[in-house]
TrEMBL record, chain A:
Pfam families: TctB. InterPro entries: DUF1468 (IPR009936). The chain crosses the membrane at residues 12-29, 41-64, 93-110, 146-165. Residues 18-156 form the DUF1468 domain. The keyword Hydrolase does not apply. It comes from the Bacteria. This is DUF1468 domain-containing protein. Keywords: Membrane, Transmembrane, Transmembrane helix.
TrEMBL record, chain B:
This is Tripartite tricarboxylate transporter permease. The chain crosses the membrane at residues 20-40, 47-69, 81-99, 111-133, 139-159, 171-191, 203-229, 250-272, 321-345, 357-381, 393-425, 432-451, 471-490. Keywords: Membrane, Transmembrane, Transmembrane helix. The lineage of its organism: Bacteria, Pseudomonadati, Pseudomonadota, Gammaproteobacteria, Oceanospirillales. It comes from Billgrantia desiderata. Residues 22-440 form the DUF112 domain. InterPro entries: DUF112_TM.
């Protein structure tokens, strides 16, 4: 990316994380001020949010770096950039994203299809995502583990757990 | 200081109650198992077994419950080391070096180090308590909201400044955690940040958030790995290596001693206690070390520092409970409930009138420490087999266990939802070098920090000169400023040295 006479590299992922933190803090501050501006309400949240926003602004230059105009980058700058960059490939990231989505769906389905069936399905999906391809393992391990976990937690915790089969 | 008559009466009491000793090993095992299960807190275990103690005499009942408490103190470290899941909030700092050691195939050593430091930290703390239980109670009574506020900030700022490479990212993570910790209704009755979600009125559920930030986020990264320990030859469970870990812990007696003292004194403060003590001990060990860069990458000293402090804070919390009748957390609250069930009223009069029982409890805890060493060794041996399980089985199974554990906190879907949201936040933050542990501690202490700030404001009437009347708070603030400046300076110096070395190498 080029601004004026200088070229910049942007770590978009890092910038997204900074934006996420800043947006959450700003939204929380806005909600707090909307609730009441009484000192008992804002005494902590106001200064803490301002500090968080200032720190977020201070970190932005770490995600947006100016590239040296010389053809060979400074060694320290190069080492820093290499050290800061996450090491996964896009393929690795794809599997991680799939597991995250699967985990989200598992949480969503717990009270809809029951802890037992949801766990069975999620463990099967998780096994596949993590590299298990043997049919026998995919068929046997998930229901047995799901059943054992459901029975164990049902015995341990004092709250009811919604299940479809067990 | 030590009442010899009461001490000998305590010995007689323990010798004449063989029934009390029968409950120690089962108590320790229950504590280890429950402490090692994420989400199933020791408070829940003690609450489940509390009714059973109704049919016991007073001393066996208390010894059974304290044995569970002792077992859980170490139990929480087992998943912290093996899976980066702190079983309890006091095991957060154990994950910093324990988990990298496990990933490096040094899980046997890490467990040995943790068990030894935990036991000896605890023994030291009870020795200290035996000597100073009465004066410690006076110190705790002198601690006001301002002191509690600065101690909580001390912990969070130290962690933020020390963990990770960038101080700004660490402090931002800490402040972000503190803000999230104040979501919901504050002590003055104002509701903020709930987004209309009823269960957020009580704040963000801390245990599921902690599991999401530290554990689930890490599990996502293991999708493409085959085993927790990649090198097959390092996956063996070796008693010899566990014993080597034992010896390793004793190579750092000063770290154990410092951790124990921090644990006793910080642990004695209700509400702050063990969540902070392990971080303070870790931070000071890292700072004082010749090679601070090796921390967070599998330095056993980090495990020693964290474990000696969190186990000894159990002693501190017991002191406050026995001397003042103030429970520092859920587990000591249940102990107090057990007192009440046996018609014993805790508090200052209890320690004055029943010094023999107080000493008997302290001695019994001492014995529990030694028994934990033996029982814990067997437990560690079994638990360590987790490194031999292929990750393709471990990752989805542990995610399900974490989810069930999050549900077990209050029996609502709020736990699993929080777990999921924070696992994504934790994964994103960890990916870009933000210390998620700082967010966790911020979350744990956010409510407390705000409450103490409000109380300080009310007590002082908004007058800043009130600070001058609180020398202890001033002393802690001076320590915070000095240690932050020292850390910032050391980080700058290190960065400059690295750059100069690189320049020199390129020039040559």
């Amino acid at each position: 990316m080029r601004f004026g006479n200088h070229r910049y590299t942007v770590d978009w992922g890092h910038l997204l994380v900074i934006a996420m933190i800043a947006v959450i803090c700003a939204a929380y501050l806005r909600d707090t001020l909307a609730t009441s501006t009484h000192v008992n309400n804002i005494l902590f949240v106001l200064p803490a949010s301002i500090i968080a926003l200032l720190l977020s602004a201070a970190i932005v230059p770490q995600a947006v770096r100016r590239v040296a105009e010389s053809k060979v980058p400074e060694p320290a700058q190069k080492a820093q950039a290499e050290e800061d960059a996450p090491s996964e490939t896009w393929r690795d990231l794809g599997w991680i994203a799939l597991l995250v989505i699967g985990f989200g769906l598992f949480v969503y389905s717990l009270e809809r299809i029951g802890f037992d069936v949801a766990s069975w399905l999620f463990i099967t999906l998780g096994l596949f995502i993590c590299g298990e391809r043997r049919i026998l393992a995919l068929v046997l391990y998930p229901p047995i583990t799901a059943a054992l976990l459901v029975f164990a937690f049902k015995a341990l915790i004092p709250y009811p757990m919604f299940t479809l089969i067990l | 200081m030590i009442d010899l008559v009461a001490s000998s009466a305590a010995f007689q009491l323990l010798i004449s109650s063989p029934e009390a000793w029968m409950w120690v090993v089962p108590g320790i095992v229950i504590g280890l198992v429950f402490g090692a299960m994420p989400g199933i807190s020791i408070t829940m275990a003690m609450a489940i077994f509390l009714p059973a103690t109704l049919y016991m005499d007073f001393l066996p009942a208390i010894i059974f419950l304290t044995a569970m408490y002792t077992g859980a103190g170490f139990g929480g470290s087992v998943p912290a080391i093996l899976m980066n899941i702190p079983g309890t909030s006091s095991a957060v700092a154990t994950t910093f070096d324990g988990y990298p050691m496990a990933r490096d195939g040094r899980h046997n050593e890490a467990m040995g180090v943790a068990l030894t430091s935990s036991v000896f930290g605890m023994l030291l703390s009870y020795t200290v308590l035996f000597l100073i239980i009465a004066p410690l109670a006076d110190i705790v009574l002198g601690i006001g909201p301002l002191e509690m506020l600065v101690i909580a900030l001390w912990g969070i700022l130290l962690l933020g400044s020390l963990a990770g490479k960038y101080m700004t990212r660490g402090i931002l993570a800490g402040v972000f955690g503190l803000l999230l910790g104040t979501v919901g209704m504050n002590t003055a009755g104002y509701m903020r940040g709930t987004m209309g979600v009823p269960w957020l009125l009580d704040g963000i559920p801390v245990v599921p958030a902690m599991m999401g930030l530290l554990a689930a986020s890490q599990l996502f990264n293991l999708v493409n790995a085959k085993f927790l320990v990649e090198d097959e030859s390092k996956r063996r469970i070796s008693g010899r290596k566990i014993l080597y870990g034992f010896k390793q812990a004793f190579r750092h007696p000063l770290v154990i001693l410092r951790g124990s003292f921090i644990g006793v004194f910080i642990g004695a403060i209700p509400g702050v206690g063990s969540s902070i003590s392990n971080l303070l001990s870790y931070a000071y060990t890292k700072r004082g070390d010749d090679d601070p860069e090796s921390f967070g990458k599998g330095n056993p000293k980090g495990v020693v520092a964290a474990e000696s402090a969190n186990s000894s804070s159990e002693g501190g919390a017991m002191a406050t409970m026995l001397a003042l009748g103030i429970p520092g957390g859920g587990a000591t609250a249940i102990l107090l409930a057990a007192f009440a069930m046996h018609n014993v009223v805790g508090g200052p009069s209890f320690i004055a009138n029943n010094q023999d029982i107080v000493y008997a409890i302290l001695f019994a805890n001492f014995a529990q420490g030694f028994l934990l060493l033996l029982v814990g060794l067997g437990f560690v041996f079994v638990a360590s087999s987790v490194v031999r399980v292929p990750l393709r089985y471990l990752v989805p199974t542990v995610l399900v266990v974490a989810c069930f554990g999050a549900y077990a906190v209050d029996g609502t879907i709020a736990g699993p939802i929080t777990l999921f949201v924070f696992s994504v936040i934790g994964w994103l933050m960890a990916r870009y070098g933000y210390p998620v542990a700082a967010v966790v501690v911020g979350l744990l202490l956010g409510g407390l920090v705000e409450t103490q700030l409000l109380r300080s404001n009310q007590v002082s009437g908004g007058d800043f000169t009130y600070l001058l009347e609180r020398p202890a708070a001033i002393a802690i603030i001076v320590v915070i400023v000095a240690s932050m400046s020292f850390t910032a300076g050391a980080k700058q110096r290190r960065k400059r040295r690295v750059m100069m070395n690189e320049r020199a190498q390129n020039g040559a």
